[in-house]
Design goal:
The complex is a heterodimer of chains A (429) and B (324).
Chain A lengths: L4 H16 L2 H35 L2 E6 L10 E9 L3 E14 L3 H9 L5 E5 L3 H4 L3 E4 L8 H16 L5 H8 L7 E4 L5 E4 L1 H38 L3 H7 L2 H37 L6 H28 L3 H20 L1 H6 L4 H8 L4 H10 L7 H29 L9 H10 L2
Parallel strand pairs in A: 1-3, 1-4
Antiparallel strand pairs in A: 2-3, 4-5, 6-7
Helix pairs in contact in A: 1-9, 5-6, 7-9, 7-10, 7-11, 7-14, 9-10, 10-11, 10-14, 10-15, 11-14, 13-14, 15-16
Chain B lengths: L1 E10 L2 E11 L4 E5 L6 H8 L7 E6 L2 E2 L8 E4 L11 H11 L4 H14 L15 H13 L5 E5 L7 H16 L3 E5 L3 H7 L2 E6 L2 E7 H7 L4 E6 L9 E7 L2 E6 L5 H10 L4 E6 L4 H10 L32
Parallel strand pairs in B: 3-8, 3-9, 6-7, 7-8
Antiparallel strand pairs in B: 1-2, 1-4, 4-5, 9-10, 11-13, 11-14, 12-13
Helix pairs in contact in B: 2-3, 2-4
Classes of the chains: A alpha/beta (429), B alpha/beta (324).
Chain lengths: 429, 324
């Protein structure tokens, strides 16, 4: 495989510029982070605001105490929740709920229907023996309303203990572990205090980094697939191949579109660093440079591997639709680790994680997930072996793609069968 | 000088190009003919180094094609296209750069070529905004940019109006005058007769005709003469049949008779002869005859026709067509 790098670079420049100037590229570059931000916001914000809204409406609780145990219980429930649990968990606001007693269930139900109370709590006569209570609400969401459930439970604790123990013990019994610090062994062998926000960050970092890597590999491969399919459909290849070799063309495309993929990574990482910088500074979190170096290495090799396969697919198919159908299985292989995300994150050094991080098609995403997971300890030999295997697979993919590419480019109107493709890959004819 | 020597290409054990040899010197427009599926495209792809021959050799100006020699070859395929979502001048300059021009020079030559084909004002428009005919002219320009030494054109006139066809022909003559070798593959035999000096015809991968057009016509001429006279010549010795053809008279000769003897007999009888010519078949008829009768295929292999080597060129080539 001899390549004229002068011609390959001309092709690379054209491929890069044509791609980054496309509206679809700009849309992906800007739209993807916005989309993720939107999805995250939509997933977290309603949860927080829903809880506050429930507590705001929970102004009065009707109680029917048939057991007589709660006669001395407090007549008010105070619930404090964080204004923004992510920005500042210490800043709280307090919601008050008045407790109104009713002599019977009918009276409580009537008050509930008249919306004089938000909920009714019916405590049967045998409560102490059974622990059973009934809550009545006008409507409830999926899986009941836990936001208002917890304050009611705490009120029950306070009511049970009122007059029997001092107020400090009552408070403690209501929230026995309001502050439970958890220390875990880190990679250096020291017990470190686990911080919830840091935990979220440490989960998000490997997830986002691996997702970013996977997306860039697939996006670069898709650009190649699209480019080859378009050139094949527009019948420009024969004119081009008269001037350049198929190897020049392949090398130029891999370089140019790989550059476009790297541009995406750089812009996304840069934007992420700027947006995440305050949070990282507050948590004293430093982005490990080794992780970045590994990310670049896995991107380059993973991109070469997948992009070569995509190029081969583009060359043997007749149009973009056909190419997309074939390419799906490769794209899917790249994202397999995300399907097994919970297993990989909980057991980052388990056999499945090790196996997937050594298997070339899943290696880039899995290894990045493991390397960025704080609780994982990836031995250097595994990283080395994984990179060597991936490099070998990438070399084989480029070599095979070059052979299939050269023959497939001039094939119109017929999709070759598997034995034909294997023969091209083996012999180049 | 393009030299093709004993080139063979087989697919699945079947030779699609079988021992084809020919030469085309600089400054010649050479026709590559053959029915569909004859192996022309495969032969062209080998000349452009898109495919490699199984055996044989192809050289351009003494250098085996491939590598840097590719820059001196330009090919306008029958099935052709352009990048659609780029400016016309950029689409052209890209090909110029690939042929070794620096970016600025490629752009300048692209603009000059666009001016030559009356598309200068379209330079900054997107290719997809051009009509089909305009796109064809741009496709021709992508072939011409970089001053190629060998120009291979496959059905270049298809879809062009007479005005653009004429412009196309003028450009071919300009290139020819500048020493460019032109290989023209077409089924439009009138264009071959107008433009080409010599021709090669292949059928089922075999060379079945090769030589100057004049010699090919002579080789396939009926044993007849065409005369223009005021009155019918009347029966005479050595003439089998007399029939009117487009206002002239076609005289089919007996096998042993010669055109000179017939002319002498006409003069002797006092027939006023306005014109006298050997009757030849149009190239299209020769094409049909050769393909229909399978001429040249009975040899089992083609190979260079005897005496072809060294006789290339419009001034020296002799007819090597027929069943060789």
């Amino acid at each position: 495989m001899s390549i004229s790098w002068a011609r390959a670079l001309i092709i690379a420049r054209r491929e890069y510029l044509t791609t980054v100037r496309r509206k679809a590229f700009l849309f992906t570059m800007i739209g993807m982070p916005l989309y993720f931000g939107f999805v995250m916001t939509m997933a977290i914000k309603p949860e927080v605001s829903d809880r506050r809204e429930t507590l705001r409406k929970f102004a009065r609780l009707g109680v029917v105490d048939s057991s007589g145990v709660f006669a001395g219980a407090p007549r008010e429930i105070r619930t404090a929740i964080a204004v923004d649990p992510f920005k500042d968990p210490l800043k709280t606001e307090t919601y008050r709920t008045a407790v109104v007693f009713y002599p019977d269930q009918a009276g409580a139900e009537q008050a509930l229907r008249a919306r004089q109370i938000a909920q009714a709590l019916v405590i049967p006569a045998d409560y102490l023996a059974t622990g059973k209570v009934r809550r009545y609400v006008l409507s409830s969401g999926l899986f009941s309303n836990t936001s208002a459930g917890r304050p009611v439970e705490r009120w029950l604790v306070r009511g049970l203990l009122a007059g029997h123990v001092d107020s400090a013990r009552i408070e403690r019994a209501a929230r026995p572990a309001g502050e439970m610090a958890l220390y875990s062994l880190d990679k250096e062998g020291r017990f470190q205090l686990k911080d919830d926000r840091r935990e979220v960050f440490e989960f998000m970092l490997p997830f986002m980094f691996a997702m970013l890597l996977g997306l860039c590999i697939v996006t670069g491969g898709q650009y190649l697939l699209q480019g080859v399919s378009e050139e094949k459909e527009s019948r420009i290849l024969e004119s081009l191949l008269c001037t350049v070799t198929a190897e020049d063309l392949l090398a130029g495309k891999l370089l140019g579109l790989g550059g476009a993929g790297l541009t995406l990574v750089a812009v996304w990482l840069g934007t992420g660093a700027v947006i995440g910088a305050p949070s990282m500074a507050m948590l004293e979190f430093h982005f490990p440079p080794l992780l970045l170096a590994l990310g670049i290495a896995y991107f380059l090799l993973g991109y070469l591997f997948y992009a070569s396969l995509m190029t081969g697919v583009g060359a043997i198919t007749n149009n973009m639709r056909e190419a997309q159908q074939f390419a799906f299985m490769f794209t899917f292989a790249n994202f397999v680790p995300f399907i097994m995300l919970s297993v990989l994150m909980n057991h980052p050094d388990g056999p499945l994680a090790v196996g997937l991080s050594l298997f070339p098609p899943t290696a880039p995403v899995t290894m990045m997930l493991r390397a960025a997971t704080p609780s994982a300890t990836v031995p250097p030999w595994q990283i080395g072996l994984s990179l060597v295997l991936l490099a070998g697979a990438a070399w084989l993919a480029v070599r095979t793609a070059a052979r299939v590419f050269r023959i497939g480019l001039l094939l119109y109107g017929k999709t070759p069968n598997l034995p034909e493709i294997l023969r091209w890959a083996r012999t180049g004819r | 000088m393009l030299e093709v020597r004993d080139v063979v290409k087989t697919y699945d054990g079947r030779a699609v190009v079988n021992r084809v040899s020919f030469e085309v010197p600089p400054g010649e427009i050479f026709a590559l003919l053959g029915p569909n599926g004859a192996g022309k495209t495969t032969l062209i792809r080998m000349i452009t180094d898109i495919l490699r021959p199984d055996s044989g050799e192809i050289r351009l100006d003494g250098q085996v094609v491939g590598g840097d020699a590719k820059r001196r070859i330009a090919y306008l395929p029958e099935e052709r296209g352009l990048y659609r979502r780029v400016k016309v001048v950029e689409a052209l300059a890209y090909f110029g750069e690939l042929k070794g021009l620096v970016r600025q020079a490629a752009r300048q030559e692209a603009l000059d070529l666009l001016a030559r084909v009356d598309l200068r004002e379209w330079a900054d428009k997107q290719v997809q905004a051009l009509s089909k005919g305009m796109q064809q002219k741009v496709q021709l320009c992508t072939t011409l940019i970089g001053d190629p030494r060998l120009l291979i054109l496959d059905e270049p006139f298809a879809g062009l109006d007479p005005l653009n066809t004429q412009m196309f022909e003028e450009i071919l003559h300009e290139r020819r005058a500048a020493g460019c070798t032109v290989l023209l593959s077409t089924h439009q035999m009138n264009k071959v007769e107008e433009l080409c000096d010599r021709a090669l015809m292949i059928n089922h991968g075999f060379m079945v005709l090769y030589g100057t057009l004049r010699d090919i016509r002579r080789e396939y001429a009926d044993h007849a003469v065409v005369v223009r006279t005021e009155r019918a010549p009347g029966a005479m010795p050595g003439v089998n049949r007399i029939e009117p053809v487009n206002g002239d008279w076609k005289l089919t000769l007996e096998p042993e008779a010669t055109p000179q003897a017939v002319l002498g007999a006409l003069v002797e009888r006092g027939v006023p002869v306005e014109s006298f010519a050997i009757a030849t078949l149009p190239l299209e008829d020769i094409f049909v005859k050769v393909v229909r009768e399978g001429r040249g295929l009975d040899r089992g292999q083609s190979g260079p026709p005897a005496g072809a080597a060294g006789e290339a060129g419009p001034a020296t080539a002799t007819a090597k067509g027929g069943a060789r």
